[in-house]
Amino acid sequence: MKRLTMLIAVDSIIRFVLSANAAKVMKRVLAALLLAGAFSAVGQSGNDRGIDEEVRRLNMREVEALLRNDVKTLKSIWSDDFVVTNPFNKFINKAQVVGMTESGTLAFSSYDRQIEYVRVYGDTAVVVGNETVVWGGKLPTVGQTSQLRFTSVWTKQGGRWQQVARHANIVPRP
Fold first, then answer.
1. Are 152 and 143 spatial neighbours (Cβ–Cβ below 8 Å)?
2. Which of 173 and 22 is assigned the larger pLDDT?
3. Which of 29, 57, 90, 93 has the most C-beta neighbours closer than 10 Å?
């Protein structure tokens, strides 16, 4: 019986020591991760801020170009492999969007874009927000106002930022 009691006591002591060491190790790992994250955020904040501002500026240029049907500007903002899942649930490429714009099918009489989120990942940026548009052109929605949610992806290509992908959907009215 003494031997069993002794084994239980030894087992309890080992468990306590291991749990105490495990807790210390976990605290050290957590502290190191927190410090690394803090230094990483501090080191990137200035550069990311500049990218954030550039991507926001390009978003405003895109809205202005859409309102003016300025295909030349749109072509420069969109990468050659630009793709869109549009609010009508169609997956289209740059040539198709440009064609719709040039033909007057895709047009807007009003376009308000509110950017809610920009996140930079090196040479890639993700932009999320909402839009209020009044459709123009030759679409069945001409004259109607729609609320949209959008996500766009931008990458730095050839030394400049270009939009490579966009998804937008119409927000249903309550």
1. no
2. 173
3. 93
Cα–Cα distance measured from residue 63 to residue 111, given in angstroms and rounded to the nearest whole number: 7
Nearest-angstrom CA–CA distance, 162 and 54: 11
Q: What is the pLDDT of residues 123-151, one digit of tens each?
A: 999 999 999 999 999 999 999 999 999 99
Q: What is the predicted pLDDT for the residue at 32? A: 38
What is the pLDDT at residue 101? 97
Q: How many CA atoms lie within 13 A of 139 on its CB side?
A: 20
Stretch among 23-27, 100-104, 140-144 having the lowest mean pLDDT: 23-27
Burial 132-167, CB ≥16 within 10 A → b, else e: ebebbbebeeeeeebebebebbbbeeeeebbbbbbb
Neighbours of 33 (CB within 10 A): 10
Backbone CA torsion sign across 89, 95, 96, 98:
positive
pTM of the predicted protein model: 0.73
The residue to which tokens 């991507």 are assigned? 55
Q: Under a CB-based contact definition with an 8 Å cutoff, are residues 64 and 55 in contact?
A: no
User: Strand pairing of 108-121 and 91-93?
Assistant: unpaired
**Beta-strand (E) ranges in the chain?**
78-85, 91-93, 108-121, 124-135, 145-157, 160-170
